[in-house]
Amino acid sequence: MATDNAICPTKPEPTLSFTQGLIIGQLSVILLIAAFIKFFIFGDPPSPEVTASIRATERRSRTLAHRQSLLTLRSPTAKSPQPPLNKKKTSVLRSPPTLTIGSILNKTYYNVDSHQPESLDWFNVLVAQTIAQFRSDAQHDDAILTSLNQALNSPSRPDFLDEIKVTELTLGEDFPIFSNCRIIPVDEDGISLENRSGGISGAGARAKLLDGSRLQARMDVDLSDMITLAIETKILLNYPRRLTAVLPVALAVSVVRFSGTLSISFIPSNSSQSTPTMMKFHFLDDYRLDFSIRSLVGSRSRLQDVPKIAQLVEARLHRWFDERAVEPRFQEIALPSLWPRMKNTRGAGDDGLDGLSSATASLNKGKGREVASQIREEARKEVQAETSAAGASLRPEMNPETLRYRRARGRHEDIGTTGSFSMPGSLPGVDLDLET
């Protein structure tokens, strides 16, 4: 018996029954789900200042890594300019001297070291008028709503989203303010010469760096407004079969503030490559973009303003903006030709610059002539009245010795006193004898 017990030991009895284990397992799953919902979905988001600081640090590190890679790949010696194509040049058009960035700055009296930043009040007024006209046109035209609906419901829309409808659109009431504009020299990659060399010292070193650079305008932009876009859609669950579940979702995104630095530069046209003049612009990585995001999930038991949804949407919007217009990314716009052309002329009739031709073009021939003659007659009377009034006011103060009212000297008067007539511009001492 002792041998049998040693070969086949008795199994220990379980301390928990099957029912108890099932209950403990279910409670563990419920606790995990509750902790996930509480801390991951409904957890308090970080403050906007902390989030903005983290994003700015990430963008700055990405920009520095990009600059370091450019400086590493760049050859130590300066790139030699490509020789121009051997084309036959005409002798009529005189070739001007070669202009460098240094000569342009000297001719425009602009010192990049001592010139004070300029305010852009006049530019702010023009931009405000353009934006105001755009907002006014949007109130009377549904073109912007049609474009938004087409963009949101494009073929690239995911399959788990139903049709997206725009429920609210607010274009704001304030305008962006541009200020602190300054001109700085940059290299061909858009890197500031001060950042590239750690500071420029000496006139010779500065002139050498300016020869291979171009100019860039940087200005501060600040906008505090409420630009809102609200949409609603449904999240479709198509597994294990189509439309297994449907979850309504409403989302409203508002831009409350934007501040940053805008960089603008011009890339000259290249005749050899048939490229037009381009305007290049982008924002520096130190910008600040704040959103206000409201959400509503569900049909009956609705969840309002879920923090995690706001974080995901805000991160996606920042990523979209960074990938398009934040350094080292930039936008290029081809500029049209500024040469005056007749097809671009507006403001007068085809017969000339006379305003009457455009005013009477829609009238018939007889009526147009009658209106034109009446206008000319009224204008003539007004001119005569103004001339008479001006002459009456000046007549008592007329002085015969003044230059304006001095009597012209007659021909016989001069001849009678001297016996000769002097021609203006003749040699001194040479007179013309005009006596008969």
Describe the protein's architecture and organization.
This protein has 436 residues and is of the alpha+beta class. It is built from 12 helices and 8 strands. Strands 1, 2, 3, 4, 5, 6, 7 and 8 form an 8-stranded antiparallel sheet that branches.
Q: What are the key terms here?
A:
436 residues, alpha+beta, eight-stranded antiparallel beta sheet, 19% strand
Topology:
Layout (H helix, E strand, L loop, with lengths): L1 H6 L10 H24 L6 H26 L27 H7 L13 H20 L2 H10 L12 E6 L6 E10 L6 H5 L5 H9 L2 E24 L7 E23 L10 E6 L4 E10 L5 E2 L2 H19 L5 E4 L20 H5 L5 H30 L16 H8 L18
Number of E strands:
8
N-C termini distance = 175 Å
Low-confidence runs: 355-360, 394-417
SS-based class: alpha+beta
- Average pLDDT works out at 76
Judging from the principal axes of the Cα atoms, what is the shape? elongated
User: DSSP helix count?
Assistant: 12
Query: Over the alpha carbons, how many angstroms does the gyration radius reach?
Result: 40 Å
What characterizes the major β-sheet? 8 strands, antiparallel
Order of helices and strands: HHHHHHEEHHEEEEEHEHHH
The helicity comes to 25-40%
Strand content: 15-25%
